[in-house]
């Protein structure tokens, strides 16, 4: 079986106040932070709530070995908002880099893992979030960079 949860790319932490959290990390010497880079348009974009997805705020920092993403969901209904309301701030998902997003998504589906959100671009880049919280303790994501 091909291992697609092998190369950790990022850890995503959901917070109430993005600016306050980034300020704290900067006081610890963690930075520089940048806005999550929105790449080109998706040819496929299946998320539970498009407006909520569009309204989320993200900041990222590249460390030597992994990226940290901080996410502040809007008040609109989304999986991230529900996580924050039910569990408080914390790690929402782990993102893994893959060579082929489509193949990784298909392999996960073949294992019976449900997809909760997905996006694909014409160049083959994109993401897929999996319904793994109950079994893995966290949402798992695969992503392919452009």
From TrEMBL:
* Entry keywords, A to Z: Lyase, Metal-binding
Query: Is rRNA-binding among the key words of this record?
Result: no
Q: Which GO terms describe its biological process?
A: L-methylmalonyl-CoA metabolic process
Please give the Gene Ontology molecular function terms for this protein. lyase activity; metal ion binding; methylmalonyl-CoA epimerase activity
VOC domain residues: 7-145
Q: Quick check: keyword Ribosomal protein in the entry? A: no
- InterPro entries, per the entry: Glyas_Bleomycin-R_OHBP_Dase, MMCE/EMCE_epimerase, VOC_core
Identify the SUPFAM superfamilies for this entry. Glyoxalase/Bleomycin resistance protein/Dihydroxybiphenyl dioxygenase (SSF54593)
List the PANTHER family hit by this protein, alphabetically.
Answer: METHYLMALONYL-COA EPIMERASE (PTHR43048), METHYLMALONYL-COA EPIMERASE, MITOCHONDRIAL (PTHR43048:SF3)
The identity of this protein, by name, is: Catechol 2,3-dioxygenase-like lactoylglutathione lyase family enzyme
Which species is this record about?
A: Variovorax boronicumulans
């Amino acid at each position: 079986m091909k291992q697609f949860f092998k190369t950790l790319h990022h850890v995503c932490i959901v917070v109430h106040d993005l600016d306050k959290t980034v300020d704290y990390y900067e006081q610890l010497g963690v930075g520089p932070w940048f806005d999550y880079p929105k790449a080109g348009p998706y040819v496929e974009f299946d998320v539970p709530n498009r407006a909520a997805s569009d309204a989320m705020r993200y900041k990222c920092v590249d460390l030597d070995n992994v990226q940290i993403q901080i996410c502040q969901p809007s008040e609109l209904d989304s999986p991230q908002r529900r996580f924050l309301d039910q569990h408080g701030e914390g790690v929402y998902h782990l993102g893994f880099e893959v060579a082929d997003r489509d193949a990784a998504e298909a392999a996960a589906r073949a294992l019976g893992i449900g997809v909760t959100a997905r996006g694909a671009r014409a160049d083959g880049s994109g993401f897929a979030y999996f319904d793994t919280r109950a079994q893995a303790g966290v949402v798992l994501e695969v992503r392919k960079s452009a």
